Automatic annotation (TrEMBL):
Its cofactor is pyridoxal 5'-phosphate. This is Histidinol-phosphate aminotransferase. CDD domains: AAT_like (cd00609). Belongs to the class-II pyridoxal-phosphate-dependent aminotransferase family. Histidinol-phosphate aminotransferase subfamily. The modification N6-(pyridoxal phosphate)lysine is found at K211. The lineage of its organism: Bacteria, Pseudomonadati, Pseudomonadota, Gammaproteobacteria, Lysobacterales. Homodimer. The gene is hisC.
Amino acid sequence: MSVLDLARAEIRALVPYSSARMEATGGALLLNANESAWAPFGDAGMDCHRYPDPQPAALVERLATLYAVRPAQVLVGRGSDEAIDLLVRAFCRAGEDAILVQPPTFGMYAVCARVQNARVIEVPLAADFALDADALLAAVTPAVKLVFVCAPNNPTGAGISLEAVERLAQRLAGRALLVVDEAYVEFADGGSAASLLDRYEHLAVLRTLSKAWALAGARLGCLLAQPEVVALLRRILPPYPLPRPCVAAALEALSPAGQVAARERIGVVRVERARMAAALGAMAGVRAVLPSQANFLAVRFEDAGAAYRRLFEAGIVVRDVRRYPGLADALRITVGTPRENDRVLAVLGGGL
């Protein structure tokens, strides 16, 4: 069975839109796309009057090298959110198919499914917020086409071992596409599920440049999957998804010097995460700090509302996650610079 057999038949048969940039490349005089002949004021050589390459080869190749996959296994989009939406639209028939998630987890999986009118099957994480593989597998029905696993998980920060991911991949063969969201994996101790791609055609991995690579404002992320899955999603990808300035920013961030700088900052975050966890855990009014493999900490408070207000009044905005299952007493605090973290600790240490 091919992984494409899980996808919607009408998407497999779809003749995609053919853009001017896709139909012809090269040439010195471009008159095929109804673009302006003049660059905009202040363009600074960016050529923003020209439509961008739908999948810029230089960026695709750099990401493939970074993630140790083949270029044909990379689909670049506007953050990993776009890849989630594309997957749901390609694999889930409205009113018939479903996705499976383990809450509390990233909310966009369910949002994209509901926009598509696909059902969302929820199997709660274990009491310690660990992946409950047995419960997840037991809940998979023929209607489930996508199983989303967030590793490390958001908003709890819990990591997932490669062994657990591979066990899921083995058990889901021929049943569903396993999608591992690795938005925070650069901050974790383990490796990437991308190392398993060549063994499991029904595995896909989401990566983003928004977190460790500091490009949240550029909105760039990618899907890593078998070339057949990448080609399928390109059928429904907008013609020009990647703005030229965003691509230029990504290439700079992923340059050799950019990678050195990013890895230095990742190291700082990991050290600060441990320091923050220890300091918060020792504070009066803090019930617990959940173990985290991400660039944030989920913190349980005696009075999370009061802690939130205290921080907000001091000009510090954290994420209120009390609406998530099992986190009714928690706030999510991003690990900032050492100075920023000192400020958080000083405000909360003043009394809760």
